[in-house]
Amino acid sequence: MQIIPGQLKTAELHTWLQSAIAPRPICFASTMDKDGQPNLSPFSFFNLFGSNPPTLIFSPARRVRDNTIKHTLENIYATKEVVINVVNYAMVQQASLASCEYPRGISEFEKSGFTPLPSEKIKPFRVKESPVQLECIVKEIIETGQEGGAGNLVICEPVLIHINEDILDNKGAIDPHKIDLVARMGADYYCRASGDAVFEVAKPNTALGIGVDALPLTIRHSHILTGNNLGQLANVQQQPVIDPAFDDVHLKNIFQYYSIAPEEMEKELHRYAQKLLEQGKVQEAWQVLLAGSL
Ligand SMILES: Cc1cc2nc3c(=O)[nH]c(=O)nc-3n(C[C@H](O)[C@H](O)[C@H](O)COP(=O)(O)O)c2cc1C
Q1: CA 179 – ligand 1 centroid, Å
Q2: Domain residue ranges of the chain, discontinuous segments joined by +
Q3: What is the residue with the minimal CA distance to atom 7 of ligand 1?
Q4: What is the CATH superfamily name and number for domain 5-197?
Q5: pLDDT one-digit tens code per residue, 129-155
Q6: Rounded to two decimals, what is the model's pTM?
Q7: pLDDT tens-digit profile of 196-215?
């Protein structure tokens, strides 16, 4: 199916987009109005856009329902300050509660039960329960339109970042399982970025991977190897060659067992290579595949 944006009601398009552009990190924005009244609301139209200068953007959009604007945006226009607090699993239900449209003057800190902590560089409070709190000044606000659903890009520069040391690993870096972040998806879905949901992909760095187009056709057109497997194999920097020192019992067994059925042997070699790739053993997988091409 296809969607032409102008041909759908904004509310419908909004739903499609929110489900497709996901998961989105959550900015838990703490602001203050001119009179010092605090406000706290979650925004998942949010991301990091640069680190020199550090740049975060989130978007309190115009309500699709009635084209009204959010207290957070009004406060930001008035004060140009915001604390962006990240949201982890332990906070997600209370953070969602803070999205209720409480009237002006009612503090979502109290309604959602979070603890306000004074900031050092700006007036709005930090959220004590959040593992990373970024005190930000607002550099610019870009309105993408004037109708319901239009975004307001709040371009923020963090001037002080607070990190709870409980989320660090033994090298002093943020451990994804300890920070346990959550993200917003479509409808009422969220996801939790820890445990089995977190995995590593080796970065291609500055050296160039050989590319899928450089893989031998038997590998490229394999019925066993997946796109992810091809991506791993093609991320080596040089076309691998047979290593005579590669000595593998399982490989020998495959050769022995399938010697009279070459097609079956190729499948079995691809299955074995796949297993090795799942364990991150790319060079070993290449050796198994090259042995099969002899
Ligand atoms: C997890 C989550 C993410 C949200 N993301 C956004 C968003 O990116 N933009 C937006 O305009 N509203 C978003 N909302 C809705 C706002 O939080 C909601 O409109 C809130 O009442 C705004 O509060 P305010 O008027 O006090 O600023 C989100 C709600 C939740 C629960």
Answers
A1: 22
A2: 5-197, 212-291
A3: 43
A4: Electron Transport, Fmn-binding Protein; Chain A (2.30.110.10)
A5: 999 999 999 999 999 999 999 999 999
A6: 0.93
A7: 999 999 887 778 999 999 99
